[in-house]
Specification:
124 residues, mainly beta, seven-stranded mixed β-sheet, four-stranded antiparallel β-sheet, globular
Length: 124
């Protein structure tokens, strides 16, 4: 059973930065999309950024492209999300998720495993 453990959430002022980490306890498949999704109150869960292994291909939501950077350490089954130039619209519960489905990408409905979430607050 794969478990995902997130860390790094918190509060930041607009224009500031945060770094999220997510470690998978194991990965029994040969490939993986792994990354971050978020859900703000009253809104649907949306894909933020994901990274593919092997190869390192990335996908970003249009709203975060150029501000957020996802990376991974395959030896540690860990992905990171560096969030810069944050604004109040980025405030949400951030969830780590992973799937072995090739079509997984940024689709929340195609993720196989989920973390518990970490809260991100951005003050203006």
């Amino acid at each position: 059973q794969v478990q995902l453990a997130e860390s790094g959430g918190g509060s930041v002022q607009a224009g500031g930065s945060l770094r999220l980490s997510c470690a998978a306890s194991a990965w029994p498949y040969s490939k993986r999309w792994m990354g971050w999704f978020r859900q703000a109150p009253g809104k649907e869960r949306e894909g933020v950024a994901v990274i593919y292994s092997p190869g390192g291909a990335t996908l970003y939501a249009a709203s975060v492209k150029g501000r957020f950077t996802i990376s991974q350490d395959n030896a540690k089954n860990t992905v990171y999300l560096q969030m810069n130039s944050m604004n109040p619209a980025d405030a949400a519960m951030y969830y780590c998720a992973a799937t072995d489905l090739l079509a997984g990408g940024l689709d929340p409905n195609r993720q196989r495993y989920w973390g518990q979430g970490t809260q991100v607050t951005v003050s203006s």
